[in-house]
Write a structure and sequence with these properties.
Two copies of one chain form a homodimer.
Chain A (H helix, E strand, L loop, with lengths): L1 E5 L3 H12 L3 E5 L3 H10 L1 E5 L2 E5 L3 E2 L13 E4 L6 H7 L9 E4 L6 H5 L8 E6 L4 E4 L2 E4 L5 E4 L7 H12 L4 E3 L3 H22 L3 H6 L3 H18 L6 H10 L12 H8 L10 H11 L4 H16 L4
Parallel strand pairs in A: 1-2, 1-6, 2-5, 3-10, 6-7, 7-8, 11-12
Antiparallel strand pairs in A: 3-4, 8-11, 9-10
Chain lengths: 313, 313
């Protein structure tokens, strides 16, 4: 299958690498100059479950696709949320009327952006539990296990979705077709919505935030806001199960010792955050449905204030 | 007049020093060991508008008053909010049935604590715009100008209030009798309620917070919560005037370059904050009156989480 990874950061590189190793015709697309140039020069380097490997995968900047790359069977979107629209605009030339587009970004509401460029029957929404880390331009560290689920959310047929599931699974990515991928996307957004903004503002890892007496009320209130809004979109979240799931990340011997990705973006790397696509998205949806979301709104404002105070870019 | 300053930190030392210089019989009461011992040994040192002075003012720990100090005409309360109850308990022996008690603490709801120890006709509530800084045990820096207003809020007569006003004014403290001191207390609490918690959580001075695009909505929302609750206590705050007043502090060439006292307490000195007596007090009152105060509640929780993360004491 001809596959383009649009947004070849850590996670995009993982999917690209594994799909390439499985024999697919993969290209990587990214805007990061040093990263793309390094892959063009020496290939994508990876520490893949402890083994150092290099794979020669064609890499492109978005603006050099036209004329060089023909139409693609499946595009997998893995950009940062705020770069999605720009990326879709740039890769129009490789989207044919049959190209399937699988959106695997974190956060909520990306389908509204994808719909402006791709007809509904070609859109696949997905959610993944794989992890990946960038160790430098052109270099990733990939370990552990994961899975990915996806669904044709806008069409009755699921043939195209099943075909992509097959290709992903043959590459070892443990894919499955979901009958309710939006539930999984909301559930994951609840994890990010309770931990990312708070740990960023508090400059705390997950365990230290979780150990505070205030964490229970903060987590419950934010999850209730997410669930109130999700209900208006026909998705009935199991609030207690999600509260427990979030709390399971507090273990200091497990995930808890880590700082969420938003903390790494803003506090460590001085980059703008994805808060508008997590808590901010819940506020926008809440306003539309007349559902009150004050914790999400205040947290979004605090993270934006912190971005400005640190002059993040 | 025989005056006891209960809580002789920076502000208590200013009032004590100025009242002592004006010829009153002043004693200082505080729990901070090094501070009280230093004043006992060498007197209270002050840089007073640029001039270095030392005043011999009797200083006591709360537990050594009994037997040594007789009843007092006026007690001025200047403790940290969370020490008020403990202080009142400790100084019972110097409170006679005629002792006036002037409460000048920052924050809301302290009268409920004072009422447990002092009969209503002896309680004066006040609000001050003086500033002061501690430079070390037994040493303060006092510059600039200020004022203080007070009122007998629980009795129709105002004789005792006027008497205290006279003594304070004779000491240069620019006192006046107020007909609505609770308005001033709420207005000042709005300043602290919008700036203290936010600048602490964001690790920011007032100007940097104020310059962020998010500041306007945060300030307005918090002031609306304060005003909604104040209304239930019969105090109608001028919301727009208070928003403008808060924004006037954003000037980086004025107050804006400073960090609020709560930031100094928690981030600089690793001490517990007064958040429960500012935004937290609005939440408790809001719950009583069935008024929603989500921003105050979330901010209170975030500050408490930060206290725990930093293991503040």
């Amino acid at each position: 299958m001809k596959i383009a990874i649009a947004g070849a950061g850590a996670m995009g590189s993982r999917f690209g690498l594994m799909l390439h190793k499985a024999g697919n015709e993969v290209i990587l697309i990214d805007k990061w100059t040093e990263h793309v140039n390094k892959i063009k020069e020496v290939g994508l380097k990876a520490n893949f479950n402890g083994e150092d490997i290099v794979e020669q995968i064609p890499a492109f900047f978005p603006n050099e696709l036209e004329g060089k790359v023909g139409s693609i069977d499946t595009v997998i979107l893995f950009t940062k949320a705020m770069q999605l629209d720009d990326m879709l605009q740039s890769i129009k030339s490789i989207l044919s009327k049959d190209t399937k587009v699988l959106c695997l970004l974190n956060g909520l509401g990306h389908e509204d952006t994808v719909k402006m460029y791709v007809s509904e029957e070609n859109i696949l929404l997905g959610n993944t539990m794989w992890t990946a880390g960038l160790t430098g331009p052109g270099e990733v560290k990939l370990f552990g296990n994961g899975e990915v689920e996806l669904q044709n959310v806008y069409s009755s047929g699921k043939e195209s979705g099943l075909e992509v599931v097959k290709v992903l699974s043959e590459a070892g990515l443990n894919a499955k077709y979901s009958e309710n991928v939006k539930y999984s996307i909301w559930r994951k957004a609840c994890v990010n919505g309770t931990l990312n903004g708070t740990c960023t503002i508090l400059d705390s890892n997950i365990a230290s935030f979780g150990a505070s007496k205030a964490a229970d009320e903060i987590v419950r209130t934010i999850i209730n806001e997410f669930a109130d809004v999700a209900e208006k979109e026909g998705i009935i979240l199991d609030r207690e199960e999600i509260v427990s799931h979030v709390k399971s990340t507090f273990d200091p011997n497990g995930v808890g010792k880590h700082y969420p990705s938003m903390h790494q973006d803003l506090i460590k790397n001085n980059r703008l955050t994805e808060i508008d696509y997590i808590n901010g998205a819940v506020c926008r949806k809440g306003a539309k449905y007349n559902v009150s979301t004050p914790y999400c709104q205040f947290l979004t404002l605090l993270v934006h204030a912190k971005e400005e105070i640190l002059t993040a870019k």
